[in-house]
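Would you kindly consider the sequence and fold I have copied below?
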Amino acid sequence: MLLVPHMQEPKYRRILIKLSGEQIKGTDEVVSYDMLDYLAREIAAVHRRGVDVAVVIGGGNIWRGNQSIARGMDTAQSHYMGMLGTIINSLALQDVLEQHGLHTRAMTAIQMNEVAEPYIRRRAIRHLEKGRVIILAGGTGNPYFTTDSAAALRAAEIHAQVILMAKNGVDGIYSADPRRDPTAVKFDYLTYMEALNRGLTVMDSTALTFCMDHDIPLIVFNALEPGTIERIVLGQHVGTLVSKTLPERMPVPEV
């Protein structure tokens, strides 16, 4: 794919963006068109720079599996229902992306041929090479694995250079929830092991361990700040970077 002329060269050529279901939920809507439109514009700005973009989206706005499990629902049954929720969200995002002129493919780990392609790794990579945004739905296709794990797995499969973990209103990883604890300390950089040992809310531990084993860096950022994804792609330090080693002379803050 060609870059737009006279524009800064991106640092990352292939990214995977992880969105939660809650991020596309409005105040009184299951799916907010305004939020989808905002996210589509953010993705389109990055795509215009010649960056391959994959998106994994959760389904928590439609189905809260943990709450149902707590009330006695079979765990696998609840997880499958959550996977179906991710497909609904993916189709909604696909439609809005196409309204912004992007070519897209929705691919799902659960076969649903009438509405989305089955996820096939080599086909997904080919779509990226042809300049299409791919939306990877259905989690991993297996219960007991979160969409965080799906994001880590798909990032490894498609050779994404980085996972961008979008958060609402929080600009990185903190020692505690900064919205509740004013003494919370923000981390600019963390190693995978440091995040695991501190029990920080980056992504679930299975997914984070997978990223560590396969050396896939994560950047946690505030999705509600316009232009953030583009800044990250261009190499600006935004949010919190989680990687194998810390930058030279960059200690982890004491908390």
About this structure: The CA atoms of residues 106 and 135 lie 5 Å apart. The chain has a mean pLDDT of 91. The helical segments are 33-47, 65-70, 75-99, 121-129, 147-158, 192-198, 205-214, 228-233. The two ends are 45 Å apart (CA to CA).
